[in-house]
Records
---
Amino acid sequence: MIVEIAESSSSIDREHKASLYARAGIADYWLIDVVHGVVEVHRDPAAAPGAVYGWRYRNVATLRPPANVAPLVEPGRSIPVAALLP
């Protein structure tokens, strides 16, 4: 699991880093976008020839408060999205 906080680099994180993490087999990648007040949850990495590093996440959910999110490593633990944002 990787959790990143992005203020000005969200487009780079979303395209380049997400593709690299998917290629590495990271199953759960969260991008906390403090500018837009959302948490993007990227899951299910898969090969994708058009992606920057040849991989992408098949499932991407954009969550806003009052939503909750549970990490794959601890699915019984629900974390409020608001708790992840400044």
---
Amino acid sequence: MSRALLPVMNAAYAVKTRALLQVMNATDTSMSRALLQVMNTVYTIMTRALLQVMNTVYTVKTRALLQVMNTVFTVMTCTLLHIMNAAYTVKTRALLQIIHCYDSCTSTSHEHRIHC
């Protein structure tokens, strides 16, 4: 009797095991899909937030850099203009002095020729 009962029990056990494995696989697949969907949503939200933060930081850094570059350029331009103006003033004064001296030397007046 036990020999006849063993194949029946074995078959029933195999059917139960297969059914249980099928249910576990379906459950695991559903849970895995749901978990992957949640992870994908979280990852997408985090990526968007990170990109937004990076964009904001980049915009702020770019504006600050442009402000610094503008200030430096303005200071350099003003300094260069002051230097050029000073050099031009010195050259103009020297040139006017030379012209005045030349005019004095070529003057017909005796006092101017002696001075020169």
